[in-house]
Amino acid sequence: MTNVNAASLVRVESVSHRFDRDAVLQNVDLAVAPGEIVTLIGPNGAGKSTLVRIVLGLIRPSSGRVTRRPGLVIGYMPQHFHIEDGLPITVRRFLSLARGSGPEALEAALAEVSALHLIDNPFQGLSGGETQRVLLARALVRNPDLMVLDEPVRGVDVNGQLELYDLITRIRSRRGCGILMVSHDLHLVMAATDRVICLNHHVCCAGRPEAVSAHPEYLALFGPATGERLAVYTHSHDHRHDLAGEVVDDPAAGRDRRRSVGSGS
Q: pTM of the prediction?
């Protein structure tokens, strides 16, 4: 059971949900506090997207309770976003469509994700990493208390994923916002999260990522067939990567920003 307390930005308590006869969620608890990164992980069809939609208030659960802090502002980064090629639109125009996005706010959000130089580029011409940063900027425009990021590194190579996870961590540190992040890969997201909830229609296990990675139910879903503990990705940085994933020399970045668990390094 996740930690549910009065300081939380959002609390989900004993929530269950059905679509027709199919039980998608069963007695799920979840909470996100200010300044906390919570990662929701689970296999395809586990109910992660349904739970996110319940947190956002887009779905009313079949049973249970959802409590949001009064006046809570949520910034949402969807898993899928597509604009038809026949509808040309610049990054500036795309961000201006977000509620509360004045010129200064959208430029500040793009600068925060190191993508201000893309402001007049066509949205459809962005690379995978550039697209994800622009979508992250869109979630930041309203100065949210809580950010909900659904697969924020989708379509990005490993180096780009690591950079995005580091960026998300820095945003949390600067803003003090809570972050609920959906991922399918604890292997990479490990160092960028405070708490993990492993979902497979119900909460299989929850806690610090190091503990979850060794939990029998997590290993049954994701772990090696041998039952060995998960080797968590480590990445020693004496450089950084640009939006396209190319290496850029950065001596100040010479530190190991990944933790390792078990036999991995």
A: 0.80
Is the pLDDT score of 39 beyond 70? yes
The conformation of residue 230, written as its DSSP 8-state character, comes to P
Q: Which two tokens stand for residue 35?
A: 């300044």
Please give the domain boundaries of the chain with CATH numbers for all domains: 1-73+144-228 (3.40.50.300), 84-138 (no CATH)
Q: Tens of pLDDT along 74-124? A: 999 998 777 777 778 999 999 998 877 788 899 999 999 999 999 999 998
Instruction: Tell me how long the chain is.
Output: 265
Residue pair 18/24 in contact (Cβ under 8 Å)? The answer is yes
pLDDT at 265 over 60: no
User: Buried (b) or exposed (e) across 206-244, using 16+ Cβ within 10 A?
Assistant: beebbebbbbeebbebbbeeeeeebebbebebeebbebe
* Strand pairing category for 22-32 and 10-19: antiparallel
- Give me the helices (H) in the chain, please: 48-56, 91-96, 103-112, 128-140, 158-175, 186-189, 209-212, 216-222
160 three-class SS: helix
